[in-house]
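lol forgot to send this yesterday, sorry. struct tokens for the thing we talked abt
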């Protein structure tokens, strides 16, 4: 059995770990024309916030992790010409 003091130390160490933050950008990852919008703690929170922004202002957005230097997620809510013209096709 783990001594109480050691268990408390493990919990404190785990509880004090910082929640990673993710940067939300407008634009397409890998292009120079991107705009930083905001930073959000937690991947789930950042993804939900990105979806809210994309719904309010359609376009391409992505999440970037400064810790790993990787794109974590992206979404593009741009209205394409075919959709705007009423050309709806079913994908099979």
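and heres what i got for the seq, position by position
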């Amino acid at each position: 059995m783990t001594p109480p003091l050691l268990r408390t130390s493990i919990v404190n160490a785990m509880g004090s770990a910082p929640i990673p933050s993710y940067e939300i950008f407008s634009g397409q990852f890998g292009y120079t024309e991107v705009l930083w919008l905001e930073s959000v703690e937690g991947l789930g929170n950042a993804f939900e916030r990105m979806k809210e922004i994309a719904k309010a202002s359609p376009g391409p957005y992505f999440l970037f992790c400064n810790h790993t230097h990787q794109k974590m997620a992206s979404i593009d809510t741009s209205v394409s010409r075919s959709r705007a013209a009423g050309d709806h096709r079913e994908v099979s």
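The mean pLDDT is 81. anyway ping me if u want another try
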